[in-house]
Amino acid sequence: MSDFNATPRTPDEEERLLEAGRLLFAGPCDFFFGAQKLEQLPPPGAPEIAFAGRSNVGKSSLINALTGRRALARASSEPGRTKQLNFFDLGGRLTLVDMPGYGYARAAKDVKEDWQGMMFAYLRGRPTLQRVILLLDSRIELKASDREIMTLLDRAAVTFQIVLTKCDAPRPGALEAKRSQAADLARQHPAAYPGTFATSSDTGLGIPELRAELAALALPQAG
User: Fold this and answer.
1) Any idea where the domains of the chain sit in the sequence?
2) pLDDT tens digits, one per residue of 66-125
């Protein structure tokens, strides 16, 4: 479910994009690299989409829902501990990058240092990075760490797109307020992409539409 700021499309265009997203994410998707240091990054290849968000925002669940896998991306047993960039190859046409969570209290200092160091360097210098999907939990208020990451993404001049997670939980009125807030946030940041999404990994809300959005950034299908 995208917001009203997304680019208007005809029903035929929408159907074509939804099918392209379905086909892309129904294909093979495999973990192929984990990097804990900048010099360990794999050589640039297919266009990259990085997923970022606070610890426990539902990042791993969303990646699994998009790819139709139960355990492709795994959450750490202790939030805030995962510090490496995990790379997943989606049919040779798109690379999904699972970034470390931020904002976890017990690891706040280390995570902040990671994001100000290696993560910022990755975001600013990766030539194949097309977009960062910034996840915000629809059930809770926006945190200072979320605002800090948006400012960091502005500084890095990296396009990011806000995606709300766990949208099956709030009541309809509360969810609509969160969607309006997300759209307002996007307008406040020069690096933010205007279209935002409301998703649920449990019910599938918004998953086909987000697949379609990301498929538009993938390499063309061979043959």
Assistant:
1) 11-215
2) 999 876 766 544 444 457 899 999 999 999 999 988 876 554 555 556 666 888 889 998
